[in-house]
Amino acid sequence: MERTIKSFEVIAEATKPFIYTFEVGKEFGGQAVDDIIEHNGVFKLFNRKDELITEINLPVVGVKYEYPLSAVN
Hints:
- This protein has one helix and eight strands.
- With 73 residues, it is mainly β.
- It is globular and about 45 Å long.
- The longest helix is centred in the last third of the chain and has 4 residues.
- The strands form three sheets. It has a three-stranded antiparallel β-sheet, with no helix packed on it. A three-stranded antiparallel β-sheet has the order 5-6-7, with no helix packed on it. Strands 3-4 form a two-stranded antiparallel ribbon.
- 5% of the residues lie in helices and 59% in strands.
- A hairpin with a 2-residue loop joins β5 and β6.
């Protein structure tokens, strides 16, 4: 079944650990995230031109997926 990553949460750390959510439609590094791809535990954020914004390699707490309507039937 095909699915698309809608968002994921990681444990980030500044002065103390906190949960940060990366999600499609949200800005990161001044660019809107249009796509998220996971490959070997590394999450890659892409803009609408399919250009890599950044790679995230932090401990993941959770991932939310979006399924196409045809897959739900």
